[in-house]
Amino acid sequence: MAWRCSGRTNADLIANMRTARIITTDRVGEAMTKVDRANYIIRKSEAYEDSPQSIGHGATISAPHMHAHAIEHLLDYLGPGKRVLDVGSGSGYLSAVLHHLVPGGIVVAIDHIPELVDWSKSNLRRDGLGPALDRGDIVAVTGDGRQGYSSLAKYDAIHVGAAAPTIPQQLVDQLKSPGRMFIPVGTFTQQIIQVDKDENGKVTKKNLMGVMYVPLTDAEGQKRGY
């Protein structure tokens, strides 16, 4: 089971996900190795547990195996010069991993809780990514991720870290042709849906797996506990 991938170190965690065939490509393993999860959580003793953890403000950091699944599914759209939108970026962890997969590209990390955006910037700098922030290779902004971030659109890949009741059309509109989005969708039952837009702009959707994510909501709803 995925939660058995927990380790005592970041290297252990990643090795266990490789053994479980959650990480199946060297590119994903190498990118995740470069980002120490301990820099992006509150309780350092839980850094390498394969489980979601609270990061305050009604938000969580997803379990490492879900981040690995997301990157593996987006990988064909990640590479040099690519542009990525990370919706509900929280602690900044996944944005850091994505940065290592798009050299010379841009990762836009958007969250509607300003305190989390500020914290994520501190986390990224602690992890040695201050220069990437200063150059604009990682852009961390406060905003309603359901509306995307039009200033730097369009995006080769979009990751959404909370469950939307339906797929936001604005996110689909901000996908490049071709492009791909990884998004949890649903309320009582949820599915990860892979949204693909081909070179002609045709959109197709594929259910990948059942999941349980916190809701993609507005800032006030999140602070109230949804």
Can you characterise this structure?
The chain is of the alpha/beta class and 226 residues long. The protein is globular. The protein has eight helices and nine strands. The two termini are 29 Å apart. The chain is 30% helix and 26% strand. The strands form two sheets. It has a seven-stranded mixed β-sheet with strand order 5-4-3-6-7-8-9. The protein has a two-stranded antiparallel ribbon with strand order 1-2. It has helices at residues 10-19, 26-33, 64-74, 93-101, 114-126, 130-135, 169-173, 219-223; strands spanning 53-56, 59-61, 83-87, 106-111, 138-142, 155-160, 175-186, 190-197, 203-211. The mean pLDDT is 91. Helix 2 packs across helix 4. A hairpin with a 2-residue loop joins strand 1 (53-56) and strand 2.
- The geometry reads as globular
Give the low-pLDDT segments. none
Mean pLDDT: 91
Roughly how many Å is the radius of gyration? 16 Å
* Element pattern in H and E: HHEEHEHEHHEEHEEEH
Strand content: 25-35%
What's the main sheet like? 7 strands, mixed
Structural class of the helices, strands and pairings? alpha/beta
Share of residues in helices: 25-40%
| Number of helices, counting only DSSP H or I runs of 4 residues or more | 8
Q: Going across the major beta sheet, what is the strand order?
A: 5-4-3-6-7-8-9
Task: Give the helix/strand layout.
Elements: H1 10-19, H2 26-33, E1 53-56, E2 59-61, H3 64-74, E3 83-87, H4 93-101, E4 106-111, H5 114-126, H6 130-135, E5 138-142, E6 155-160, H7 169-173, E7 175-186, E8 190-197, E9 203-211, H8 219-223
